[in-house]
Design brief:
By secondary structure, this protein is mainly α. Helices cover 57% and strands 0% of the residues. This is Addiction module antidote protein. InterPro entries: Cro/C1-type_HTH, HI1420, Lambda_DNA-bd_dom_sf.
Length: 97
């Protein structure tokens, strides 16, 4: 019997705004800036790239370019995207272990 596998797409499991917010919160705490951008891309696909681009005030092509691997989007773009998901960046002190 041949085992068939499929790719797991996390975007398929982000069904609500609360799901996306929890996902992005974990992303910011668990990884660096590249990880956050990757997770923003997943969240945008979950919500719909066209809808996210419209709400962020950018073109769909610009959104894809900003979230592409090796992209270096402006902080303004990241802030706009986070606003679409009703999130914001915050600063907190790092507590030594």
């Amino acid at each position: 019997m041949k085992l068939e596998t499929t790719n797991l797409d996390i975007a398929d499991y982000l069904e609500t705004d609360q799901d996306i917010q929890a996902f992005l919160l974990e992303a910011i705490h668990d990884g660096g800036s590249e990880h956050l951008l990757h997770c923003l891309s997943i969240a945008a696909r979950a919500k719909g790239m066209t809808d996210v681009a419209k709400q962020a005030g950018v073109t769909r092509a610009s959104l894809y370019k900003s979230l592409n691997n090796n992209a270096n989007p402006k902080l303004e773009t990241i802030t706009k995207l986070l606003n679409v998901f009703n999130c914001r960046l915050t600063i907190e002190p790092i507590t030594p272990n």
